Amino acid sequence: MDRILIDSGLFGGGLALINTPRGVAMYNEALKGLGIEPTGLKTFQIDGIGWSPEISTEKGNRAYLTHGNANQIGIIVTPDQYRKPIHFPSNTFDRRIMRMFFEQSMREIADITATNCVQLDLEQDFTSYESWRDLLSVASVTVRASAGNLMNAVKHQRALEAAALEGTNLLFNDALRAQIITSAESGDIRRRRVEIPDLLFSVRGANFWSRAFEGAFVLRVGADNILVLENDTVFAQAEPDDSGSVYSINEPGDVLERLAEEDLIEINFGWLREHPDELETLWEMIVADFVCRAEPECDYISMIPARKKGIMHARRDSVPPEFHELERLMQSLRKNNKRPPEISKDLARLLLRPSKKVGKVYTEVLWMLLMRVQKDPLDILTFYTCDKEGFFSQFETWPLAKKRWAAEYVSKRYVPQMSQTTPQDEPEEDTKRPRKGPWGRTS
């Protein structure tokens, strides 16, 4: 991982450190219980579900903590993993699942991890996804927890206690007395809180992204399903039927047009007029991207505005057309014109955002889709917030000047999602009259 990301805290800052022999041994015991080879590392970090970037590098396998995309598994070593990010999710709802799991069973997790790891199986009703239709059929995820032999040992001691209290001649029951003595050698664990109930997490009617089939967005629109695939080979083999409509993310016009038709995305000029800072931020993003690519070694952070404008002017023939179009739009909105000027699809793609009608919980999924449609998004804060994996991948392709600027810009403004209050999935009523734009609905 790029050192700039690490030093700025954008990568690794939210992980839990495992650096004691006991912690490493517990993690390895959990790996073996899940059928995974233990690590030889003496210190490493883990995220909210137990995935470690260091161990994934050691194994040469980023998906080492799964048994296929339909079988996400997890390891909890410490309660400190609560509200930690998940760096390699199988699905966008993994973070919500882990937050709910911790909040449901925090006392049990704290008790168990005093001596053992909690092993998790996130069951999705499929051993493996054989068809994209399987992905559309997922209705729920059941989280089942285990802790090696600890849970059974606690049950066994309690059963022995019950048998001893029921019996009238324990002194002469050699077999029962021997079992009690043997069990007590490992300590009195009768009062430990280790029973963790299954957590049922519904995804019926939910929008989400899955790592299955090399990346797939599942969007539910009424009785219809929309599947957006990121791999063209998979897309070529997916024939739409009554299960849903299938699109390729590499054909963004078709994807965006369908999303606009379903009121999932919009360009809200009224909102932009009331929030001029949004367009000003986009203007700065375009300038920063252009200047940093024009002068890859520059110190953009300390560059004064006049210098930035000078570089833009000197290379005005290569400035993207949507930049000048954006300036005209900003001027129009400042004048409070009733109807903003017509805009191109290139600019519209930068202005699209999830519709107000979309439930807040699923807004992140649509932002992630909008970022991936853009390939190399200019809105780096939203990009990092909603698609860290994509952000890290693109970061490696940027010139040094943009890396330094982006790292500072995002680190100063980013609010970890796990620290935010879980939003309610309640759509907001849109009372504004819609009109048609480059991809259907705008307001």
What can you see in these coordinates?
- By secondary structure, this protein is of the alpha+beta class.
- The protein folds into three domains: 3-149 and 194-202, no CATH class; 150-184, no CATH class; 265-442, no CATH class.
- The chain is built from 18 helices and 14 strands.
- The strands form five sheets. The protein has a four-stranded antiparallel sheet with strand order 3-4-5-6. The protein has a four-stranded mixed sheet with strand order 7-8-9-10.
- Helix 11 (276-294) packs across helix 12 and helix 16 packs across helix 17 (388-395).
- The longest helix is centred in the first third of the chain and has 19 residues, at 94-112.
Map the helices and strands.
Layout: H1 3-7, E1 16-18, H2 21-33, E2 44-46, H3 53-59, E3 71-76, H4 94-112, E4 118-123, H5 132-137, E5 140-146, H6 150-166, H7 174-184, E6 199-202, E7 208-210, E8 216-221, E9 224-229, H8 232-237, E10 245-248, H9 252-261, E11 265-266, H10 269-274, H11 276-294, H12 305-314, H13 321-334, H14 345-351, E12 353-354, H15 360-373, H16 380-386, H17 388-395, H18 400-413, E13 435-437, E14 440-442
Parallel strand pairs: 9-10
Antiparallel strand pairs: 1-2, 3-4, 4-5, 5-6, 7-8, 8-9, 11-12, 13-14
Q: Tally of extended strands?
A: 14
Detail the poorly predicted runs: 421-437, 439-443
Give the terminus-to-terminus CA distance: 41 Å
Note the beta-strand portion: 5-15%
Write down the domain tally.
3
Overall spatial form: elongated
Helix content: 40-55%
Q: Total number of helical segments?
A: 18
Q: Give the strand order, joined by hyphens, for the main sheet.
A: 3-4-5-6
Major β-sheet annotation:
4 strands, antiparallel
Average of per-residue pLDDT values: 85
> Which radius of gyration do the C-alpha atoms yield?
26 Å
Q: Pairing-aware structural class of the strands and helices?
A: alpha+beta
